[in-house]
Amino acid sequence: MSPKSYVITRAIVNRLKKENITFEFDELNGCISFNYNNKKFTMNVDNFPFQPPKLLEVDNKLIDYAKSSNGISNIIHDVFGLKCLCCISILCPYTWNLMNKFTDIVNEYEKFMNIINDAKNYKLLIENNVFCDLPLELVNKINSYLKV
Ligand SMILES: [Zn+2]
């Protein structure tokens, strides 16, 4: 039995070209890879653009926004005023739009990673009781600057 091999559609090739993205396509897993912002982005584009890309990897590490928000989702919600990152992501099948670009996925990744890092730093401040010594008004004022 020969393994299934994937074919990249002309529509995807044209879109990548339009975005000036030089890419490689892996017929064995249906994934495109390209370098952007000094990082390697890989994703499965089967059924693209009717379905969002799946199995996003950055520098060969699988990206799962729900998993990355583990333990900081309350900060992301309460302090940054955002809903669950995996649900608001353009990669979620419910929010996916046919017109989304590959660079939109890259930009969202960078934005989400910044939010996740900020939330982790915020958690460290809480764990080190930095906010305990501050008047509530000041804490609220700081928090009001953190809303995304
Ligand atoms: Zn979610």
Any overview of this molecule?
The protein has 148 residues and is α+β, with helices and mostly antiparallel strands. The protein has one domain. 41% of the residues lie in helices and 16% in strands. It contains 6 helices and 5 strands; from the N terminus they run H-E-E-E-E-E-H-H-H-H-H. It has a 5-stranded antiparallel beta sheet, with no helix packed on it. The longest helix has 26 residues. The chain is elongated and about 65 Å long. The mean pLDDT is 93. The site of zinc ion has 4 residues, from helix 4. Zinc ion (ZN) binds next to helix 4.
Number of helices: 6
Task: Report Rg.
Answer: 19 Å
The number of distinct β-strands equals 5
Low-confidence stretches: none
Share in helix? 40-55%
Tally of distinct domains: 1
Largest sheet: 5 strands, antiparallel
Global geometry: elongated
What is the rounded distance between the termini?
51 Å
Oligomer: single chain
Bound small-molecule species? zinc ion
Q: Widest sheet: strand order? A: 1-2-3-4-5
Strand content: 15-25%
pLDDT averaged over residues: 93
State the secondary-structure class: alpha+beta
Topology as a string of helices (H) and strands (E): HEEEEEHHHHH
